[in-house]
Amino acid sequence: MSKNALQEEIKRYNELYYRENISEITDAEYDKLVKKASIQTVGSAPDDRFSKVEHIVPMLSLNNAYKQEEVEEFIARIKGLLNVHELEIICEPKTDGLSFSAIYEDGRLVKAATRGDGYYGEDVTKNAATIEGLPKVLPDVKGRLEVRGEVYIRNDDFLKLNKNFSNPRNTASGSLRQLDPEVTASRPLRYFSYSLIGGRENTQFEVLNRLKELGFCVNEHQCLANNVDEILEFYNRIYDNRHELGYDVDGVVLKVNNLTLQNRLGNTNKAPRWAIAHKFPAAQGKTKIVKILIQVGKTGKLNPIAKLAPINIGGVIVTRANLHNKDEIERKDIREGDVVVVERAGDVIPKIIDVDKSARSRNAPKFIFPNTCPECNSDLDDWERCTGENFCPAQQIGKLKHFVEVLDIKGFGGRQVEFFYDLGLIRKIPDIFTLEEKLKNFNLSEQEGWGEKLISNLLNSVNSRKTITLEKFISSLGIRFVGTHVAKLLAEHYGSYENWYSADEEELMSIIGVGEKTIDSLISFLSEKDNVEMVKNLASQLKIEPVSANSPLSGKIVVFTGKLSRERKEMQAEGIFAC
């Protein structure tokens, strides 16, 4: 793979991780790619849905260490740079959440931001104000003070959430980065603080104590170490007891304790020289592939999944692994019945990293990827997508699940969608809003688990979502390549449902951030008779609020003049966040 291709691949992983809260590869795999491509950047550019906040002191990420030898090299390198024989290191657990910054002026919280690309973050002030235990006022504090930390969700709180979230880290990240602060307030976010900028402390240990004095939450697990043995003792203690902490940690952060020495060491463009994250190893185990399943997503993409003989990996029972696509299966020559090594690292979906071909039966046939949709038998296109769309039950169920998730209809999740679909009560999105009328002729209370109160609450939740923003309406339709970001661009440009619905290709091409693939997808979607009828039917049942005339982009065509710093296609591609 060329260096440019590597950089594009890394950029894609950054976008997924920092914007969409999706990890397709482990940290170790990511670090290998970055090292190979010689990249010195942090995170991902701030999401355009939020105002930007400049970090006066760059909010950098950390370099990672995975082996004892790398920790020893880190300590030796620091001692060499400082020309010292003794060095005090402070060790702190690395909480697996979302980094944030809170700025106080004369004791009042005035700004909060995410890391973003390390130099500019996303303004999440209103959302951060809802985090449990984060002080809004610091008595007797004058001047500017900046506190940095990690937002997370406890594992028990995560289990109580009746949401389709994949893990606590993604839930915390997605919750803080909500456009509606009320949604953030409804989520049990917590935090640990670990940095103080603008104080008078001399060591990191003093910083942590000062943060506690000011009323901030500080992780009680910490250790001052004077050698590698003491560092590893703390690391092993946290690793052995990590499942008892109640929240996810993925390593231990090692920092030079003396702040003056930290300043002497300085930073690279990507990370401080005075700190490193000693990451926990990815949990692995051997098991057998029982069957290779093909799932069809809402856009028709065929996703191969390995059904595994249950195996305990890192305290979690794993029964499935993501096989990604046809090429991945062929590249690794994965077959049903194979004994495989499965890895689960942090919030990454379990994946197969190796096949024990010595344990394979001589007669084991190669897996043949289907050339038609397993759900509706329609042909596949060149990108392994089902062409059946409106006739494919899997796609229709996927679109229904996507719709109720975008609208956040309480009590209406994936299981409810499948339940009503199987009963024939809903088939397309507009059917959700005619459910109440249909239930007049269907005694739902006779179905197991459905009481009168539950039915009433569900219908009230549905009715409460009949007023909707144009942005949410567009993003809820599940159009390929049209995620929340593109939906926002379209809503701000057209201003009203009527204007958007009558959009033509020429005008779509004038919107910066909407790429050619997105335009083709939109035109194709609105050219299908069934889609046109569905959209009209849905719109007739809803009150779709027009975009405020005060919106800076409402009804306007944005034109860039002069020379662009990047290729136009590259900039357009950044408007695509769903597929």
Automatic annotation (TrEMBL):
Q: List the GO cellular component terms.
A: cytosol
**What EC designation does it have?**
6.5.1.2
Chemical reaction(s) catalysed: NAD(+) + (deoxyribonucleotide)n-3'-hydroxyl + 5'-phospho-(deoxyribonucleotide)m = (deoxyribonucleotide)n+m + AMP + beta-nicotinamide D-nucleotide
Q: Spell out the CDD domains in the cross-references.
A: LIGANc (cd00114)
Molecular function via GO: DNA ligase (NAD+) activity; metal ion binding
| Listed GO biological process terms | DNA repair; DNA replication
Stored SUPFAM superfamilies = DNA ligase/mRNA capping enzyme, catalytic domain (SSF56091), Nucleic acid-binding proteins (SSF50249), RuvA domain 2-like (SSF47781)
- Outline the extent of the NAD-dependent DNA ligase N-terminal domain: 1-408
Q: Which UniProt keywords apply?
A: DNA damage, DNA repair, DNA replication, Ligase, Metal-binding, NAD, Zinc
Ligase listed as a keyword: yes
Tell me the domain of life: Eukaryota
What name is this protein filed under?
A: DNA ligase (NAD(+))
Q: Which organism is it from?
A: Nephila pilipes
